[in-house]
Amino acid sequence: MPKVLEVKIPDIGDFAEVAVIEVMVKPGDTVKPEDPLITLESDKATMDVPSPAGGQVKDVRLKVGDKVAQGTLILLLETAQAPEAPAAPAKPAPKAEPAAAAPATKPAAPPRAAPAPAAEAPVPEPGMRASGFATDLPPPPGQGEEVNAPPPVVLMPGPAEMVAAVIGGSRSHASPSVRRFARELGVDVAKVRGTGPKGRISKEDVQSFIKAVMAGARPAGGGLDIIAWPKVDFSKFGSIEAQPLSRIRKIAGANLARNWVMIPHVTQFDEADITGLERYRVALNKAHEKDGIKVTVLAFLIKAAVEALKKFPEFNSSLDGESLVIKHYYHIGFAADTPNGLMVPVIHNADRKSLLELARDAAELASKAREGKLQLAEMQSGCFSISSLGGIGGTLFTPIINAPEVAILGVSRAEMKQKWDGKRFAPRLMLPLSLSYDHRVIDGASGARFTTFFAQALASLAPAAEGGAPKRGRKAAKSRNAARKAAKKKSKKR
Ligand code: CAO
Fold first, then answer.
1. Band of the pLDDT at 168, cuts 50, 70, 90?
2. Cα distance between residue 429 and residue 274, in whole Å
3. What gap in Å lies between CA 285 and CA 287, rounded to an integer?
4. Model pTM above 0.85
5. From start to end of 144-186, where are the E strands?
6. 265 included as an active-site residue
7. Average confidence score pLDDT of the chain
8. Contact (CB, 8 A) for 122 and 89
9. Is 252 a pocket residue for ligand 1 (Cβ < 6 Å)?
């Protein structure tokens, strides 16, 4: 028996008074689950609200220009059956208190789509949050059953993907559904001229673009002239099985491909001597054995990255048209390998956190990522990313920059090497570094300076007695955190 559902705006995070910029359906339309119903636009993001179920639209209660918040009625949908209740929204784990000196600040940066994502609902993914649409509330008299639309597909602002794609200083502005439409047709929205308000690109603009190209007009500035993807019947060569890509892998793939194609990457390789640091790390972990905190190399990498970003501010920036936005905050993302794919949780205000706090936060975020419980805010506003494959293996690799960031540091497995110390060869533990940077923003010399400085900063995090660089060790000692001093005291008592 058909049911009438009230489809409402789902949890859209901190956004209130969000403008409706597109209504894609009208009464009488038939929609499938996940079909976009409306597009919302805040000052930070453009998002499509998909349909929670298939059915026929009976009445649309919103129009372009309306302001909405979570719970606003979008439309009435007649379905053959009520949608099945999905799992309850993932609740964030209780957030650990930040460092005493670290006031909670709101990231000033625009959020951005993480480069890679996670799994099918309800696992959150970059640009998408788990937020159930089930409700057991009985329908109000004379009304349909209440249903929140599933989590919106959110595209965050940033060069290229989100609201603005930057090509040669021009920005393209399109809703996710228009972007999807363009993507399906192989059209780069950055090349399409928008005729809507503020130059917004509509489906019609994409269609006009295609017509113009078909008619022989070449897009200004030249295209990539990429030939079609090879279509091969692999079954001719042997047994095969086709596994559909998860939604997350598709999103990740699109982001990675965009970043790879649009950003002129250069990868600077280097290595850091972490012989003393490793001794110190082992001692630190021994001292904190009972506290249940394990400090891995990652926490030291984050600390050294903050120092290097302070020294080289252009690495802590984003391109925005013809400007470079330099950030004065230090939110460091790190790639986490999860069963659902690559995710990039972000440690906010890493400059205000001690080594132990960084280790604890990284462990918490990594486990949330693996459990699919990361919240959108925990993947947003990163300044710089670290991709540490050291726990797995490998020597060097070329990480892809996580736009709109301009650099990413890849770290591989540390290895004992014979190093010439001026008099003789000595065994040193060397950590391979692979820094990819955006050559539009960073020069080759700066890239080499950055990794050189980073290697020194990393070594300096160990006390001089452990082999840390004495000069920087003295300077850094001033700002070393209380937790580390406590650890040292404990170690001395033993
Ligand atoms: N060299 C040698 N050993 C290392 C190391 C390095 N560079 N980095 C970590 N290790 C060791 C750790 O000390 C730990 O050893 P013990 O258990 O003996 O103490 C072990 O490897 C496992 O560490 P870990 O990987 O679990 O922990 P981590 O804090 O170093 O890393 C995380 C956490 C989330 C970054 C990691 O688990 C992960 O997911 N890495 C994959 C990232 C990825 O997929 N990147 C590719 C993205 S594409 O650019």
1. very low
2. 6
3. 5
4. no
5. 145-148, 153-155, 164-167, 170-174
6. no
7. 78
8. yes
9. no
